[in-house]
Amino acid sequence: MMLYPNQDAQGREMYDYYKGNKDVLEIIERDDGFIDSYAGAPVYFARFKDWAPHQKNAIRYATGRVLDIGCGAGRHSLHLQGKGHEVVGIDISPFALKVARLRGLKDARPLSIAQVGPSLGRFDTILMMGNNFGLFRNYSQARALLRKFLTITNPGARIIAETLDVYKRPVPVYHRRYHLTNRKRGRMAGEVRIRVRYHEYATPWFDYLLVSKDEMKNILTGTGWAVRKFLVSKGPQYVAVIQRD
Fold it and tell me: Which CATH architecture has domain 5-109+119-244?
């Protein structure tokens, strides 16, 4: 489902930044009242030379035809397109897709992760960078979609997925309390419910899944996919290179 104009917070932010407004600030609001700011736009437009080392390493594992889920302004898609890959970028943000096309992405489509299907053709790589493993939302949906991905990928295909280990120390007390509350609600500790704000725009509330390496392995078990390699950073972020069995 695509975002309505008043919901497209990140897309509006990307468009403003693309049009020359460098004074942009993204607000992340969690359902327990926690609020944080994020200078997202410079990251969304970062060139390869400015990526973190684990991200530079990860993108080198992309092969063949690529599906970029949550492509945003197109930083990963455009890099791979420039390397000669056929790339399909999908996003639920109309303004993000507009920016990606303006920047030169040849194939940018208005689709959610749940709408991915055989009509897109088959892929050799599925990109879920920018912590977009979180778009799986929860344990059961992750497993269902991973099985669905088997229908759109070739033998030997890869998923390159970035996420954040919520247990990586130090964990502030306000995050630990949220983890505990989630467990009491029958949710995974890193199954966060958030929305994004930018000026007068606000996304709907949505679930976003952040997992440890062991939790990711558990999710993948029996889905037809397995971790080939973890690429770590100095902080809680890491990338998993996931191989089709």
Answer: 3-Layer(aba) Sandwich (3.40)
Phi and psi angles of residue 7, each rounded to the nearest 5 degrees, phi first? -105, -10
State residue 23's pLDDT score: 87
Q: Alpha helices of 103-220 — where are they, by DSSP H?
A: 139-149, 173-184, 213-220
- pLDDT mean values, one per 10 residues, the chain (245 residues): 95 97 94 92 95 98 98 98 98 98 98 97 98 98 98 98 96 96 97 97 98 98 98 97 96
Place of tokens 């950073």: 233
Q: How far apart are CA 16 and CA 97, in angstroms?
A: 13
Q: In the chain, where are the structural domains located? A: 5-109+119-244
* pTM attached to this predicted model: 0.97
pLDDT at 39: 78
CB 87 within 8 A of CB 81: yes
Q: Where are the alpha helices (DSSP H) in the chain?
A: 9-18, 40-44, 53-59, 75-82, 94-102, 139-149, 173-184, 213-220
Report how far apart, in Å, the C-alpha atoms of 75 and of each of 13, 98, 238 are. Answer: 15, 13, 18
Are residues 162 and 131 in contact, defined by beta-carbon separation less than 8 angstroms? yes
